[in-house]
Amino acid sequence: MPELDDRLRLLRRQARGWAAELRPYALDLDRDPDVVLRLLDAPAVTCAAHLQIPAAFNPTPLVLAGERFHLTAARERVVFCEEIARGDLGMMLALPGASMSGVLVAAIGDRAQQEWFYGRLLERPTWTFFALTEPGGGTDAAGLRTRATESADGSGWRLTGRKRYISNALRASVGVVFHRTGDGPLGLGAALVDTSSAGFTAVAVPTLGVRGAQLGALTLDAVPITDGQLLGRHLSPMRRGSWGWQRTFNLLRPTVAAMAVGLAQAACDYVREHRRALRPAERDALARTQGEIEGVRRLTRLAAVAVDSDSGSGHLASAAKLRATRLAADVSRWALRCFGPGARLDQPLLDKFARDAAALEFMEGTGNVQRLAVAAALDRGAFAGYPPGVDGPAVDR
User: Fold this and answer.
1) Which domains are present in the chain?
2) Is 0.85 surpassed by the pTM of this model?
3) What positions does the domain Acyl-CoA dehydrogenase/oxidase C-terminal occupy (predicted)?
4) What is d(CA 313, CA 60) in angstroms, rounded to the nearest whole number?
5) If pLDDT is split at 50, 70 and 90, which confidence band does 86 have?
């Protein structure tokens, strides 16, 4: 496993402490997503709001023992997000900050767009949204139906379409909307959108899991945007479309994998803490489960190292996301079985873990999307030279 250096251990220790502070609110947040609004003075929430902002725009990063952290590198993100999700995945997703939108703005936004977006986040705790998924089409970029059409008077553009399953849709004040300006891959684009704009509406989508994320459905009814809100306007059509998006997803997928590892570890910890009198077979199962978690944690860290070295290298990120989401679902269900047939009623926190785990499958591309990416990488020999097991069980399962 890629070892954490002293700097990353500092970050892990701090994140672990914040996770412990947030865990007591997990079930309350599950019942009422607005609980997070009452935690804005909590250090974990206030600090998270200023993380994931590049150094050039962030005068107040997290400082621990003289080390500065911005959480823009994949290795920092996986360490931090694993620990917060180990406390509670719903709370991890409910925190304000740059989140997924910030990654895209950093990748393809110009200087003025970055200053505007990150400046908004520094003023006060701000939630952001990342609107890609559409009803009936999921996250398939080629199937996007949301359109940006130029105004008749040439004053700007109008966004029209629908999005669904958008995290923090009802809390957010700013975010990005993926759209088309034309047919084909060169017609793909993304725009910065203020949720107070005319024609923008968001309604809640009821869910069984990750209720803290307050998923929503967006309707865009000729929402006005200016040329300055079109991300990547200084780039070629390909680089502001699929090229930039792919690098964004390459960074985000190890992060989602780390969240899944954190949730799996939380479920394993729960069994260890609440089933002290384990039978020999159960002790063996617990040891095997912990071993599986360690293996996927290793893969996730390898994926983060690969993305930090080359933002275009996403095959390990896809493998990690695929394996970790399966792990979280398997471990949380196994943990429930350890407490018998009434576990979902008798162990509400563990029931929440299992419900939340199911949602990870749909973040940053479903399992089939990741399998296609891994298959393409195997075909071109991208996994050659990695340690034994990385291109075996980690991919196959």
Assistant:
1) 6-123 (1.10.540), 129-236 (2.40.110.10), 238-396 (1.20.140.10)
2) yes
3) 246-378
4) 30
5) very high
